[in-house]
């Protein structure tokens, strides 16, 4: 993302190699050109993944850097998800928040599993049920408006199935602020398996969590994914040990200075989180010796010089290519020279951003995906029903619930249309988020990662912006992700 | 990357190598040939690197990393 403040001109483009006499600048220019090479990017990714998994180079860093993952649904009363390291519960702020008792119980599980398991078979069943309900709805709509009451039931059923891709036990449902529209049963939990590889977990969690937005037809939904250093632990002994360990790791990282750009030893293909179930005993107050290891230090130092540059510019490209390949909804990606500020993008695309996104002054855009929603033809019948519905709204007759019921009973084609539209939007959201997720994961590092999912006013287009905060180093800082 | 593709390019590859690579997507079409050509080298570096880590041989490890970096730097994109 270097050079973005200068508009859309990369330094390499601004200074052609041939016209630059300074060998350092020339070399940098050459490297930046190389960085845009998909082959180099791909190989860099492969090399890092291999180091991470095969050689254990980064594992020692991650193990003692105590990374914590937090996922949120992005609203007051939002979904929180934490991952502890070493069998220690680091989601301490969560425990102080007004969660319902059930959630607290999960958070206090000692083995590092804090959330309700998602049962995949339930997910499949729900999807099948949703499909059946939709089919039934269509049959009823085709049969005519006299079947109105049944249609309403069918719509209700379809929506319920649509929401409830997972069914967490009631006692684990999270507290929602008064007036929140998000139904509790739309919250999807993901279980963190002990020792699970971070990247796998995060990817899976994202896939599971995105359907929770299915009912949202609003303008903007924000997702938070935060990877950060561990906050202090509970006991004084554990706290001291943790702080010493963490500071030591951070000191090594500061020396390497590798995490100020795209490649980050925590962010790029973050290694597996081994959870050896260490207890918070006094024995841990003894700081481990040379736990970071010379390999990690060397690796970081060397990679900082070259691979970070490759990743910095190249990940977006790979991500874009993956998007183009996998997404039937995709339009070509925005150019990689994306402005570094969210508002720049929003302004250019005439999308409005939520206030809180604009307040993220340190946010750096990592990936952008723009999707044109597939057209959904409004038949004459739908138009007719739509006009009737609008008339009812203008008359101010009844509250929203009554209008929805009326819509279902009197205007079944319109109801079906709106449901299908909602499903399209939900599908597009899921797709876009999962597509830009790898780029975000690989470049955010220690800091927050966010998805801003926005719809234009007529809901024909969607933009998903993946943004990352600048890495935040102070380990004592209150994690913003816990601000429920 | 598809296992059949890997098996063709790097016969008898290390299982760890295959496992990690299978999690990556296929190379982008216009970088395909270059990536395929580089895979055997990447595999060799991976084995050497792992060996160096196992032996706690930092100088060897540094050398391999530099070689890996050089491999990436050698790529031109005119």
Structure explained in plain terms:
The complex is a heterodimer of chains A (484) and B (78). With 484 residues, chain A is of the alpha+beta class. Chain A folds into two domains: 35 residues, no CATH class; 400 residues, no CATH class. Chain A contains 16 helices and six strands. Chain A has a six-stranded antiparallel sheet. In chain A, strand 1 and strand 2 form a beta hairpin. Chain B has 78 residues and is mainly alpha-helical. Chain B has one domain. Chain B is built from four helices and no strands. In chain B, helix 3 runs antiparallel to helix 4. The radius of gyration of chain B is 13 Å and the shape is globular. The interface between A and B is large, with 39 and 35 residues.
Labels describing this entry:
heterodimer, A: 484 residues, alpha+beta, six-stranded antiparallel beta sheet, globular, disordered N terminus, disordered C terminus, B: 78 residues, mainly alpha, 4 helices
What are the SSEs and their pairings?
The complex is a heterodimer of chains A (484) and B (78).
Chain A: H1 11-14, H2 23-35, H3 38-55, H4 59-65, E1 67-72, E2 80-82, H5 92-96, H6 101-107, H7 120-143, H8 148-163, H9 198-209, E3 220-229, H10 236-256, H11 294-326, H12 342-349, H13 355-358, E4 363-372, H14 380-395, H15 400-410, H16 412-444, E5 447-455, E6 461-469
Antiparallel strand pairs in A: 1-2, 1-3, 3-5, 4-6, 5-6
Helix pairs in contact in A: 2-11, 3-11, 7-8, 8-15, 8-16, 9-16, 10-11, 11-16, 14-15, 14-16, 15-16
Chain B: H1 3-9, H2 15-22, H3 32-55, H4 58-73
In terms of per-residue confidence, which ranges of chain A show pLDDT below 50 for 5 or more consecutive residues? 1-19, 57-126, 144-152, 158-202, 208-342, 346-361, 443-448, 470-484
Outline of chain B, from the CA principal axes? globular
Greatest interface and its participating residue counts:
A-B, 39 and 35 residues
- How many alpha or pi helices of chain A? 16
What value does the Rg of chain B take, in angstroms?
Answer: 13 Å
Main sheet properties of chain A: 6 strands, antiparallel
Strand content of chain B: under 5%
Number of β-strand runs of chain B: 0
Low-confidence stretches of chain B: none
Instruction: Give the number of helices of chain B.
Output: 4
